[in-house]
Structures are given as C-alpha cells and as structure tokens.
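Entry type: protein chain
Record version: 2
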Amino acid sequence: MNGRFQHCARCVGLIFLLLPSFAAAQRPDYDFIISGAHIVDGTGAPWVAGDIAIAGDRIVAVGDLSKATARKRLDAKGLVVSPGFIDVQGQSEFNVLVDNRVASKITQGVTTEITGEGSSIAPINDRMKKENEEVAKKYGVTVDWSTLDAYFKHFERTKPAINLGTFVGAGGVRNYVMGTVNRPASPAELEQMRQLVAQAMQDGAMGISTALEYVPDTFASTDEIVELAKVARQYGGVYFTHQRSETDAIFSSLDEVFAIARRANISTTIWHLKTAYHENFGKMPEVLRRIDDARAQGIDVAASVYPYTRASNGLVSSFPPWVSEGGIEQMITRFKDPTQRERIKKEMDQPSTTWENEWLGSGGDGSGIMLVGLMNPELAKYEGMTLQEIGRQWNKDPKDVAMEIVTADHGHTGQVISIMDEGDVRTAVSNPIVTYGSDSEAQAEDGPLSKTKAHPRAFGTFPRVLGIYSREQHTMSLEEAVRKMTSLAASRVGLLDRGILRPGAFADIAVFDPKTIRDAATFSDPMHYSVGVRYVFVNGRPVVWDGAITDERPGRPLRGAGYQVKPR
C-alpha cells in the first residue's frame, strides 16, 4: 500500500468518525417551537411573552428560545398560547367511535373530554347492549365491550383526536343490576353495585357520577349514592353530579349534594349549575353563596356550567319519571292507553317539587321545546321545530305531539329547552369556583355526525366564554377564563400533568386569536365550527393547524387514580 492511499484511507476513517457528531449538530433541538406568543399558562397569572418547545408528547422548555432549533417553528405573534381546554362534561364517548376527529370540540381548542354522566359507556350487560343497538347499528359501531377496560381498548383502536376520561355512572350501575324499576336496592343488589363500581375504578374511571333528574338515577336514595361514592373514594375517585333539582327544589337538592360529599368524604362537583324556570330566576347568587358556605365548612364542592340560557336532553325528560320506568316499550304502551295518556298530560300541566317538569318550566305550551337529534329519517323535517309549531301543523295538542314523536323515534329524540335567565348564567360563568362543560357530544359540519341539529354548545362553549363573557362583557380577565377552562378543570377531575403550561407537562395546547375567538353556532343554525382557534396540539401533535383539522389522531384514554394495569 503506497503512502497516498494510506493517507486517503485515514481521511475516510476520520470522516466516518465525525459523522455522528455532525448529524447531532444538524438535528433540531425540538419537534415544535411556538414562538412570540402571549403565554397564558393556566394558573391565572398574567400573560408573559415567550416561546414554548415541544419534544415528543411533552412541553420541554418555556422562555426565550430564539436560538433553539425545531423541526417546525410556529410564529404565534399576536396570538395567545394556553393549555388545551378540558371539557368536564363532554359526552362524546360514543360519537368519538363514529367520527374520530371529534371536530366540533378540537375546533374550540378542547384537547380533553371527561364524560360518563349518570349512565356511563360501561359497565354494560347484554340487555343494555340490546337497548342501544339501534343507535350502534345506524352508525356502524360494533359494541364489543362490556367493561370500561374493554371500552378503552376499543377507543385506542379508533385513534381519536382527543384525550378522554370517564366516570362510572351510578345510574348505569343501577340499571345493570336492577333495570329501570322504582324501588330501593336490596342488600345483595347494593353489594353487586359496589363491586361494579370497584371494577370500573380499577379499569380507570375518574370517579362516580349521578344524573338524579333522570331515570333510573332518580330512583336512588341518598344512602345508596353515598355507599357507591365511598367505593369510588377508596380508589382516589371524585364525585360529579347532575343534582336532583335545578328548579323549585334546588336548595334541598344542594343540601343533598353537600351531605353526599361530607358522608363519603369525596371531592364533589355539580354539573351544569343552573337556577331554572322563571320562578327561580335571580337565585344564582344565593346558590353560589351556599356553595361557598359549604366550602367554608370544609366540604370540597364546586361546579361547572355551559354559557347558554337553553338546556338540552332527551324529549322523554318532559314526561313524569314514572312514564319511563321499565324502558321505552313500556313507555309506548302507556302512551297508547287513553287513561294513562290523559294522566301524563295532566301531570305535565301541574307544578311539581318531586320531578323536574321541563314541559311546564319551558313555557307549558311547547313553544320552548325545540327538537334535535331525531333518529328516524321520516322525522328529519321536524329538526329545529318547536312542539308548538308541529302541533299547529298537525292540528294537535303539543303534548300529544311529544308522545307521538317519542313513539315514532323510539325514544331517541333530543330537545333544546328554554329554561334559564341570562343574568344567572353570567353570574355562574364568571364565578371563580366554576369550570366549564359543554354537556354535548361532538358533532361536525360534515360526515355522519352532521345529519341532525344540535345545541350550539356542542360547537361553541369555550370560544363563547372567551369571546362574549371575557372579551366583550369583561366579567373576568382572559387569564381567569383560561384558568377555569384548564387547571381548575384538571384539579376537579384529578388530572395530573395537564391543564398548565410548564416543562414536563403533556403538550396539550391551544393557540388562538384573542381578538377574534368566538362561537359561530346559534340555536337556529347550530352546525358551525367556532372561529379564532388557530392551532391545537394533543400530546404534542397538531390536530388543528392554521385553523384546519389535520390527519393527526394522537388522543389517549385518561385513567383515574385507581387504575390497575391489566395484562395484555
């Protein structure tokens, strides 16, 4: 080997030795840098100017990153960067399996949903599966789960755009064991319910929930709820409730909430706090005072709201609870019996403190009840119409119309009801201990979840708070509104490492224009995405980029403190 060849060989060897360090020098420091933004970190602290770096699924640096490199740098000058919003009453546990974009939520800046109001997605038995097979069949969803753990596996296979956690619903557990009968649970039945709650907590439930206005939850005693809440508390869970009354019996209902929280020693949050029906307008300050008094006594209780004066649930909720006992087929049989039909109509016209009379509370003539979410395609033309309008068209009593619609739609019809006062809503929205939940499943402007109308809260809850109540009405600062949407929500549910922008936290991030963010959905024309949300990251990956939904689907199941890992 001559000298020249030996010299060239040494050069080549030196180059190969230097290649790793050269490559490292060229490798960007981070995956993303969001630069030049006003950082609103979720704690309520005033905004600061700076940059945020993302690597993998985490925030890894906050500050001046002008000299750092990234695979992609996002210029957020003039925009606000905040933690992704947490919808504490999301309701998308089924719809996410239909359309994994969760479009109406991510376009608001929502990165996490908490769901499971009263009747959760699991546990379910064969009878409960059969009761819901119409909806599953319509949307092509295979219900291949019975436990929460199995549901989460299905959820992961769906590859959703957002994170989702759920409660185990006490009403669902009661239905599993007893059906929808109105009687106390026997000691053996209560023990079976306890075991189902324990299993769900081990599967990852965040805690236990009730929807005490609705069948079958309304048939449960305070003692029964306390016993189930104690089980959830043993696993580090919390308690969320649609309280028994939001209307004429609201103060005694609050007393029950406080009693459950105290007796079970469990953190408690009241969903969609309201003082509904005209005779209760103006009572919100007193409701909030009583919650503050309970907190002063050491009871950990708070609330959530949605920023609208109309509520929404199933049309069957406008009938007395006994009408729903035993399920939809027995309900339809009662409608067909002239004597029972007249009894139903009479009770709908009478004030009551034993059930939430939504028919009477929304006006008593059908004008305050608008139909949405009709399953039967032959009824689609009635979407967005009130019962009064349909009654005029059919030349029938609107109460009869309600029964005939429920019969023809087999109990699936939804309603939007006018029952609240704007002053009460504004007071609750702006209170420091109140966070936010849309109380609506995700929908979309296109695809299978665009075919029926919805309550506009499905599309606009979070931008409405920021645009109307913070920016326009100045009921709270931007930083305070974001705190209530993020770290406060996370603390009520028990989420760790989400809800605050800091190094080490999961990179769930919303980037929005504070000057333009607003809701676009209305009651008459609800199927429109909000505007002003420019970028949304979930677990470090962008699901919204420059206002458009991307193909990224990085969502994960979020499990509670009692989760016990199962062998795969």
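Comment: The chain is about 35% helix and 20% strand.
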